[in-house]
From TrEMBL:
<feature type="domain" description="Signal transduction histidine kinase internal region">
    <location>
        <begin position="527"/>
        <end position="605"/>
    </location>
</feature>
<dbReference type="InterPro" id="IPR008969">
    <property type="entry name" value="CarboxyPept-like_regulatory"/>
</dbReference>
<dbReference type="Pfam" id="PF13181">
    <property type="entry name" value="TPR_8"/>
</dbReference>
<keyword id="KW-0418">Kinase</keyword>
<dbReference type="GO" id="GO:0000155">
    <property type="term" value="F:phosphorelay sensor kinase activity"/>
</dbReference>
<feature type="compositionally biased region" description="Acidic residues">
    <location>
        <begin position="342"/>
        <end position="352"/>
    </location>
</feature>
<keyword id="KW-0808">Transferase</keyword>
<feature type="transmembrane region" description="Helical">
    <location>
        <begin position="492"/>
        <end position="510"/>
    </location>
</feature>
<keyword id="KW-0812">Transmembrane</keyword>
<keyword id="KW-1133">Transmembrane helix</keyword>
<dbReference type="InterPro" id="IPR011990">
    <property type="entry name" value="TPR-like_helical_dom_sf"/>
</dbReference>
<dbReference type="Pfam" id="PF06580">
    <property type="entry name" value="His_kinase"/>
</dbReference>
<dbReference type="InterPro" id="IPR019734">
    <property type="entry name" value="TPR_rpt"/>
</dbReference>
<dbReference type="InterPro" id="IPR010559">
    <property type="entry name" value="Sig_transdc_His_kin_internal"/>
</dbReference>
<dbReference type="InterPro" id="IPR050640">
    <property type="entry name" value="Bact_2-comp_sensor_kinase"/>
</dbReference>
<dbReference type="GO" id="GO:0016020">
    <property type="term" value="C:membrane"/>
</dbReference>
<feature type="region of interest" description="Disordered">
    <location>
        <begin position="342"/>
        <end position="361"/>
    </location>
</feature>
């Protein structure tokens, strides 16, 4: 559970007296205590504990805390799970704080002044914070009620600022940083304080307004920040620089925050900052520095709650994997597995999203991969089986697919082809289930419902904010004279017209977007349909070749040809679900295909496949099997009918940083003579390969703005020879 740190006391710079300032002569000591639930005496972890001097900490898994304090300090104990408690330090004795858990429904806070406007406002704001993470609509509704007038009283500028700050918190949690920015700005305009400015800088970062975020954080550093606030600002700067790929400045700011957190015993921040510094070093290739900070974060996380420790162990295990330290990776993941079982026992609904690495099935799969990387195939097998079993029980088809395929490869590697084939059949079945059931039904439905839910939350948020503003305007003008009320009516007419115009624009935009999305979906479906159509002409001729080899009792040639043909078919099928594959993989497929054709027609042609040494293969992608139909035409309709031995040349060349050309040249009989040689039956049949490829290119160019261009021309003046030039753009 995440907890929101709220400021205990707002100390204004003006009006301070010498009696209000802390005297430096007081003696500091370490105050120890424990926070428990009043009814059950059960300890509560991750509770925010703060004193008015700025020191901050949280409770550990046993509900215990230690904080530097002085006699007379006021201690605030806060959490979303219960109402705030305040305690004045009287002596150096250990203390026990008992709190009342909130029910989550209704109003969690009850005060002596609950019937006054001030009391109701605070109750509604506290209720909004309590429901913030579970129900956005209800939380916004509480904010709306908080700013409504009570018995003729109006809310103050400070209360307005709190209300809009709470709205910003809601927006930020529910993934609406753009709305959060507006609400935090409004809150600051009503009553500025440092915490709100920090939240605004965070919202800028989450909305990808990185320069605005950096400027806001740097401006905060000029203010009189508390220790915890300084840590937040430096951490925020580090996060922003990390987001814009500036590791030097990111680590520098993380380190500044870590130094402050260490000096003032801000324990949770010490752990997080060590972990973040390690992550930046790891991504930058500084392995030794990353290992040192990961070691720190791992030791610190152990002193927090079990889930935090497991999360950190997983990060360190990933680090070990990237650096091929497989023994330590296996050790950490094995520890994580046993701890995950305890966490799942306590957590009724463990997170099982596709991106969640903290699941038993994923950890077993990672352990197996670590063994495989060391060629310890037999040790990997039990973990792959456990991964598959866990994935089946939790309906995690992604892990089940990966683990089943890996198990098949392992069995093949140790020579157990029977089990390899059995596992591969199981893998194919999982693939069918994953792509048919999940992709066509669950994935699309889940994604669509999620988008609708987010839009609905956004509409509800905007509507509640409009009602909030309407209440504010009504409250501001209710004591004005009649002429001002008439002016207000006129303004409302204008506002209504503007809202109607905006609604019409929004409706038109929604319809336009819907049509565009439908068109995109249709194109994707058409591409998928075309990809699944194998070239029957090639398969038929290939099988005839095998048959001819067998007829000539050339079993060796038949077996060799069939083996290479099956390798090509497997590669084609593996890439059949991909819209684009790396250019390097397409070259491999093409070389294998040309090799097969040459094997069949050795006396008809020779071939060369050349790749420009300056071509950056890793930077370009291409639709799978886009080039094969052109090569097939060159062999079957050009070179095959040539009396003397011909030549096929395939050349890959990078024109500039964004463009690659692929030239397929043959000195065959040419397109004109080829048409004359066709039989009547061949003339009646349509070229499925070339027809499909033209359709694919048309759809791709429509979707990606002229990504592929193809030109076909004769090589010689006598119309013999053919040259196909295919131009491929990066984006």
């Amino acid at each position: 559970m995440k907890y929101i740190l709220t400021t205990l006391v707002l100390v204004f710079a003006m009006g301070l007296t010498q009696g209000q300032v802390r005297k430096k002569s007081k003696q500091s000591f370490v105050l120890k205590g424990v926070v428990v639930e009043a009814e059950t005496n059960k300890p509560i972890s991750r509770v925010n504990v703060e004193i008015d001097a700025g020191a901050y900490t949280t409770t550990n898994g046993n509900g215990e805390f230690s904080i530097s304090a002085e006699i007379g300090d006021e201690l605030s104990i806060k959490s979303d799970a219960f109402k705030p408690v305040y305690y004045t330090v009287k002596d150096e004795q250990n203390i026990t704080i008992k709190v009342q858990k909130s029910e989550g429904e209704g109003l969690p806070i009850s005060t002596a002044s609950s019937q006054s406007g001030v009391g109701l406002f605070q109750r509604y704001i506290d209720s909004a914070k309590t429901t913030l993470k579970s129900d956005a609509n209800k939380s916004i509704g509480y904010v709306t009620k908080a700013i409504q007038p009570y018995r003729g009283s109006s809310i103050t500028k400070k209360q307005t600022a709190i209300a809009f700050e709470t709205l910003g918190d809601i927006n930020l949690f529910w993934g609406q940083p753009d709305l959060a920015i507006d609400n935090f700005k409004r809150s600051i305009s009503e009553s500025a304080n440092l915490d709100r400015r920090i939240k605004l800088a965070t919202a800028f970062r989450m909305n990808a307004n990185y320069q605005e975020s950096i400027a806001a954080y740097k401006e905060l550093l000029k203010a009189n920040l508390g220790n915890y606030q300084k840590v937040e600002v430096y951490e925020g700067l580090g996060d922003t620089y990390k987001a814009i790929n500036d590791p030097v400045k990111s680590v520098s700011n993380y380190q500044k925050g870590l130094d402050i957190a260490t000096a003032h015993q801000i324990t949770p921040k010490i752990t997080n900052l060590n972990s973040k510094i390690a992550e930046v070093y790891s991504e930058s290739g500084a392995v030794e520095e990353a290992a040192e900070y990961y070691g720190n974060s791992l030791d610190l996380a152990k002193k927090e709650n079990p889930k935090r420790w497991v999360e950190e162990k997983n990060k360190v295990a990933n680090f070990y994997n990237r650096n091929q330290n497989f023994d330590d990776e296996i050790r950490l993941r094995s520890e994580t597995l046993s701890e995950l079982e305890e966490i799942e026992d306590k957590d009724a609904e463990p997170e099982n999203s596709p991106d969640n690495q903290l699941t038993p099935q994923r950890q077993n799969y990672y352990i197996a991969n670590a063994y495989i990387a060391q060629d310890k195939y037999k040790e990997a097998i039990p973990f792959l089986k456990k991964s598959i079993s866990e994935a089946e029980s939790k309906d995690d088809l992604i892990v089940e697919k990966d683990a089943t395929r890996k198990l098949s490869e392992v069995y093949k590697g140790i020579g157990d082809y029977g089990k390899a084939a059995e596992s591969y059949e199981r893998y194919v079945a999982v693939i069918d289930e994953l792509y048919i059931k999940k992709e066509q039904e669950l994935s699309q439905a889940t994604r669509f419902n999620k988008e609708i839910a987010l839009k609905q939350n956004r509409i509800i948020s905007l509507e509640n904010e409009r009602e909030l503003n309407a209440s504010s305007y009504k409250l501001a003008f209710e004591n004005q004279e009649l002429i001002e009320k008439n002016n207000q009516v006129q303004k409302w007419v204008i506002v209504s017209l503007v809202l109607i115009a905006l609604l019409l624009l929004f409706t038109a935009y929604t319809q336009f977007k819907s049509v565009k999305q439908q068109r995109y979906a249709n194109n994707m479906l058409a591409l998928k349909s075309l990809r699944t159509q194998m070239n029957p002409h090639f398969i038929f001729n290939a099988l005839n070749s095998v048959n001819s080899f067998i007829a000539m009792s050339d079993e060796r040639a038949a077996n060799k040809y069939l083996s290479e043909f099956s390798q090509l078919m497997r590669s084609v099928l593996e890439n059949s679900e991909e819209d684009f594959i790396p250019l390097s993989k397409e070259i491999e497929l093409l070389e294998l295909y040309v090799k097969l054709e040459h094997f069949r027609f050795k006396d008809k042609f020779e071939y060369t496949v050349t790749v420009d040494e300056n071509l950056q293969l890793s930077e370009f992608v291409i639709p799978p099997m886009l080039l094969q139909p052109y090569v097939e035409n060159a062999v079957w309709h050009g070179l095959r009918y040539k009396e003397e031995k011909g030549h096929l040349d395939i050349h890959f060349k990078q024109i500039d940083s964004e463009t690659v050309t692929i030239t397929i040249t043959d000195d065959g009989i040419g397109r004109k003579k080829s048409k004359l040689l066709k039989t009547d039956n061949q003339k009646k049949q349509k070229s499925q390969g070339m027809g499909n490829i033209q359709k694919r290119i048309t759809i791709l160019n429509d979707m990606y703005k002229d990504k592929v261009d193809v030109t076909v021309q004769n090589m010689f003046e006598n119309e013999e020879g053919t040259q196909v030039v295919l131009t491929l753009k990066k984006d």
